[in-house]
Amino acid sequence: MFTEHKPVLLEKTIDYLQCKQNRIYLDGTLGRGGHTEAILNEIGDTGLVIGIDRDLKAIKDVKKKFSKYNNLKLVHDNFIHIPEILEELHINAVDGMIFDLGISSPQVDNPDRGFSYQKEGPLDMRMNREQSITAADIVNNYTESELTRVISEYGEENWASRIAEFIVNSRNRERIDRTDQLVEIIKNAIPASARRTGGHPARRTFQALRIETNNELKQLKSMISEAVKCLKPEARICIISFHSLEDRIVKHTFRELARDCICPPDLPICTCNHQAEIKVITRKPVTADSKEIKENPRARSAKLRVAQKVLK
Ligand SMILES: C[S@@+](CC[C@H](N)C(=O)[O-])C[C@H]1O[C@@H](n2cnc3c(N)ncnc32)[C@H](O)[C@@H]1O
Which of 73, 89, 111, 185 is the most buried (most CB within 10 A)? Predict the structure, then answer.
């Protein structure tokens, strides 16, 4: 059974993609297929949409839900492999790409996936369940300083070192395998006065562990550079991110790829011969309006950035 699904920044993303019939589009984060479906509606029976997700459950669910579409190709893989995926499909380049980063509601809502600090379940957090490392492996095996770094860097958590210390003390007594166990440890680590502000005390640590488990930030940077090579001239790449760490990577990577010269600034003449691969279309990130935020609170933190492959 599928509940109503509201894809984030849908109209704006589709406007920026400028979909045309007979063209090929790629959705690198298929999820429940919300953006994919809108692209399919734009291109009609013509062209092709390639939908990629590292979560096999997402692929299986969309396959069932969208069985009526003949021009949808679903691929269970990581978006860092876009060049190989396209090669396998004998496609040189595509006419547009969309990435709606992060996790989907079916992933958060399922306690068995371990993404939510509000649901009791195994401390899993793998988007791809074929991957071996889980959040529990990180929590039980990383050193205290590694845990501090992850929680501080990826969770932007002020209490990172105290939380890491409490995790290590706790796992010395008993392995930490459940979300509720970890939530309790985090609550004990953060002083009561600090717990009163900043939302749920476990939110930032859970975000950090999810990012580390799925290697999200490193993969995002390498995906953008590789994906841009697979765009046709004047084709667009649209990326929706949900927290400042992701948005910063999108902004900086777009900026680097849009520069002609990447020589150090003190060099008197250019020796790199680097040429811009893209031009940035959105100088500032596009955000949701108040109506969308009211209907879909998740849209509040969404930021859309768009770039276009240059015509060489
Ligand atoms: C926010 S949801 C996408 C929602 C989708 N746009 C929709 O409207 O239904 C993000 C999806 O991207 C997938 N994902 C995240 N990182 C990925 C990666 N590196 N490669 C492939 N899929 C990824 C997740 O498994 C999740 O299903």
Answer: 185
| Ligand 1 pocket check for 190: Cβ under 6 Å | no
CATH number for 10-106+217-309 (one of 3.40.50.150, 3.40.50.300, 1.20.140.150, 3.30.420.100): it is 3.40.50.150
Whole-prediction pTM: 0.96
**Atom of ligand 1 at shortest distance to CA of 33?**
9
Q: pLDDT tens for the chain, 312 residues: list them.
A: 445 788 999 999 999 999 999 999 999 999 999 999 999 999 999 999 999 999 999 999 999 999 999 999 999 999 999 999 999 999 999 999 999 999 999 999 999 999 999 999 999 999 999 999 999 999 999 999 999 999 999 999 999 999 999 999 999 999 999 999 999 999 999 999 888 887 899 999 999 999 999 999 999 999 999 999 999 999 999 999 999 999 999 999 999 999 998 888 888 889 988 899 999 999 999 999 999 999 999 899 999 999 999 987
3-class SS at 102?
A: coil
64: CA distance to ligand 1 center in Å? Answer: 17
- CB distance 163 to 190 below 8 Å: yes
Probe target for ligand 1 pocket from 2, 6, 29, with the most ligand atoms within 8 Å of CB: 29
Q: How many residues does the chain have?
A: 312
- Homologous superfamily of 132-213 in CATH? Putative methyltransferase TM0872, insert domain (1.10.150.170)
Closest protein CA for atom 7 of ligand 1: 34
Rounded distance, CA 294 to CA 312, Å? 43
Task: For strands 303-309 and 278-280, give the pairing.
Answer: antiparallel
